[in-house]
Amino acid sequence: MKATAVEQQALLDLAAVDLEIARANRRLAEIEQATARDAAQAKLSAASEQLLTARHIADELASEIERLEQDLALVDTRIAQDKSRLETSSNPRDITGIQHELVSLEKRKANLEEAELELLERREANSADVAEAATARTTAQAELDQIDAELEASAVKAKSGLALLMQQREKFASLVTAEQQELYNKLVGKTLPVARLEGFTCGACNLALSGATVDEIRSTPRDELARCPECAAMLVTF
Ligand SMILES: [Zn+2]
Description:
By secondary structure, the chain is mainly α. Helices cover 77% and strands 5% of the residues. It is built from five helices and four strands; from the N terminus they run H-H-H-H-E-E-H-E-E. The two termini are 16 Å apart. Zinc ion binds at residues 202, 204-205, 207, 228, 230-231, 233.
């Protein structure tokens, strides 16, 4: 295939820039997959769940305490009623009955107060849990936000680098003929489409070629594209 020195150089540049584009694309894919983000996201989910659980326990404790306080109020009312009945009663049998009831009411009250004390202690411990989980969640969210901001910045940088490479590619591609471009496209993915002959070695497949083959390649006219007999790459000899 005919190719001027300028076209041959442009083909070499095209192959080099395509390698860089492939590298830049891989880098961008890495940024977008970002394993660090997954870890931060998992941490945030765990913290959120912990906070949810702690708040659920807080709600349960609050209703238990409320129920208990209602029971206590009822007992207090009954005690007050019994005491006033005791003051006005003159029947010894009634008095004994009321006194018995008062003893059991006082015992019930003591039990309720003890249970309430235990619930209040649990509520205090739970408040600390809620605060701790809320702090952990805030921290995890901040970490995730920071990672996202960093990834976003890296992605923007990688994309602008890629855009620059694509511009260069366009420039090199505009310098080669349609026929050369077609051959280039056919070779992409199979081998490095264009390379230099480095001594006896093909720069595309890195295979050492025989002396006779190299002589043949080197005798190719300057305005012709030589090909590697091993990998079919276009070989530039200057
Ligand atoms: Zn080769």
